[in-house]
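Researcher: Please translate sequence to structure tokens.
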Amino acid sequence: MFINLFKSLRRHGVPVTFNEWLLLQKALSENLADSSLTRFYYLARAIMVKTEAHFDKFDQAFLECFGHIERRHLLQAFFNRPQQLFIRLDMTEAFQE
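Model: Translation complete:
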């Protein structure tokens, strides 16, 4: 599972090992990310990144693998509840006609 993230981390120069990969799989099997992309991000980063010098590389690899999920989520929220999204963005005048 999530082999694309492992490969992307390696491509971006993050020295991730197979043991760290197995530890992430174990953490996921125990539901430590709680089905949240944000929690998964921090969990994976905590397990797979050894030094702060690799945080940017991790971010690039993570965005490469999962960036489309957040964008699709925002787009879906807009189409399902556009008025609520505009209220959050303080753009309510668009719905006052």
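Researcher: Any highlights?
Model: The first helix runs from residue 3 to 11.
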